[in-house]
Amino acid sequence: MADVLPFPRLSLAKVSTNSVHDRHNLVTIRNMARPYEDERPAWNGATSPQWTDLIDRIVEARCAGKPVIWSMGAHVIKNGLSRYVIELVRNGVITHVSGNGATSIHDFELAFLGETSEDVAQSIEDGSFGMWEETGRYMNEAIRQGSATGLGYGESLHRYLSTHPERFPYYDDCVFVQCQQFGVPYTCHISIGTDIIHQHPIADYEALGQASGRDFRTMCQSIAGLSEGGVFLNFGSAISGPEIFLKAVSMARNTGLGMKGITAANFDIVPADASRKPPETASDYYYRPRRNFVDRLGQIDGTGYLFQGLHQETIPALFHTVLDRIKEQSLTFRPVDRGAAPKLERERMQLFPIAERNSKFKLGSAVSEHRQLSEKYDPPQFAEMAERLRESKKNGKPLLVSLGGNVPGSGTTAAIGELVRQGMIDHVAVNGACAFQDLELAAFGHTEEDSNGALSNGRLGMWREPSEIVNEALAAGYPLGLGYGESLIAYVQQHTEKFPFLAHSLIGSCIDGGIPYTVHITIGTDAVQQHPDADFRQQGGASGRDFLIYCSTVSQLEGGAFLNFGSTVIGPEVFLKALSIVRNLQHTVKNITTANFDIVKLGNYHMKVGYEDWDYYYRPRKNIIHRPTSLGGKGYHFEGMHQETIPALAKQLLRDVNGREEHI
């Protein structure tokens, strides 16, 4: 253990929890859908040729004993559709079910409480959001106990429910229970710091990372089973579902599996077009389901579909259409022979030198273009927001900045770095992809892999040196008690010769500024996690320590500001959980300025939207603009490319530094 840890961490020991039995819930077992009794809802997508083709492919795959994998976000459970998933499992249609951390939480709560989904808008203000004793304690106990005996996340939850049946009267309506009982894997893919059980005093981030890491490898084996064809269905998981799919397919291709003839279908309320590839200046270009299921899968002769609609429409449509086909044609689905299915053999993975890689961004390639873009950027309220930031800095208040994976490749790290070095930014928080690309930039002077052809030749993400850096850094720093970012900083400082371009990176500016650089990961979505020697226990534990460093900064944020650039899930979710923790611990954080910067067009983001609107589900809108500022302060949303917004912000904030305008 290091004698003195670099940055303070907020202890969760004194977090106050409440009984979930006293909570008002928005979803109950009583209003869950009943697949065989409810009227079939109308959905206009069910008349399209693409829909007919998808149903044909699902039925053909299952008749041939090939997999049909189901990936989902939490709103499938929150919308009361659990029984549709269960019945598809029971009828042999689905051969693997996966979800994110929130999905398992809602499923778990329904099993013991018969209700789920708290009123976040109210509870975030008093610090009670997510602070539920039974949910946090039971699930953390389940994961800790299961992980210690070699189980994955889903298996751990199932064993816990089976061991304590008296606590779970709604056992039969629990998706992960029914999956296990019918021999179908249920895997859970979490992001450290985004789930309410990560706020509980007994949260064990090592166990969480290890258990979810085992589930990632189970998921990879199931996706490897698509080598000779099959179907991947994704419902409402905009990031983890398509990214885990991509990583698993890449690993399988790397080991020699063909992975041709795969069908992937995405179901979401987000409008997206699979018939054309949009330009990089359009938000659709960055929509992961389109990129991974349509563009990238197409590189290996796969087929991707994008269907738009509410889950309450699309899931019943799929259920009834497939079951009608089974009945009409007297079909029998063959079980997947997991013993004979193609295997992902990790020992056969081949890593390649990064010198052989084509990168989309190289230092010095776009500085003048970015400057020209930023000169023209001046949307309404931008100057007002910048003035609020300058005023908070004059008063000695912190500025916390969260960054998504596209920032290093946008060529804007110099602008952020100058803000750090001039004392304007006090904490840089990044997701796993951003940290990985930032280290590439520092070490090699280029980043953001050009994915054209990379999936077909089995090289996507399979680059030796970047992962060696991360793994070596964590292996050295974690046993000393360091967090993820702290371990990277320590490694860089000890091996400066490996990082000739350090001055151009985010981590380099944070080292110069002496501020926290925290890394908040999703298990299974980062390139480093594809590699054979990935240590998920270490990665989860290290990112958990970073989450507590992050919470410490948020505890001091009264009168300060939080900015989020391009992180649509990790940034807003980690911030909301940290805000709830610090308010629960009686830290005053009310009057803050928040701003979200993204290419996504929200229009009038202060207008109330409903469940039928896609932007209702856009996390930054809720978790950055509105909820944190309900007690005071002001939230903003600014549309634009990072090449526009980040240099423009730096120009605004640094215009008075040293009595002159800084040129970024």
Q: What does this entry show, briefly?
A:
With 664 residues, this protein is α/β, with parallel strands linked by helices. The protein is 42% helix and 12% strand. The chain has 23 helices and 16 strands.
Going across the biggest sheet, name each strand in turn: 5-3-2-6-7-8
Instruction: Tell the overall outline.
Output: globular
Q: Helical element count? A: 23
Can you count the beta strands?
16
- Poorly predicted runs: 659-664
Percent helix: 40-55%
Radius of gyration (Å): 24 Å
Average per-residue pLDDT, rounded, comes to 94
Which helices and strands, and how do they pair?
Layout: E1 25-28, H1 49-63, E2 68-72, H2 75-78, H3 82-90, E3 96-100, H4 101-113, E4 115-118, H5 120-126, H6 133-148, H7 153-163, H8 175-181, E5 186-189, H9 205-224, E6 230-235, H10 240-254, E7 262-268, H11 288-298, E8 303-308, H12 311-329, E9 359-362, H13 367-375, H14 382-394, E10 399-403, H15 413-421, E11 427-431, H16 432-444, E12 446-449, H17 464-477, H18 484-494, H19 506-513, E13 517-520, H20 536-554, E14 561-565, H21 570-584, E15 592-598, H22 619-626, E16 633-639, H23 642-653
Parallel strand pairs: 2-3, 2-6, 3-5, 6-7, 7-8, 10-11, 10-14, 11-13, 14-15, 15-16
Antiparallel strand pairs: 1-4, 9-12
Helix pairs in contact: 5-21, 6-7, 6-9, 9-10, 9-20, 10-11, 13-23, 15-19, 15-23, 16-17, 17-18, 18-20, 20-21, 21-22
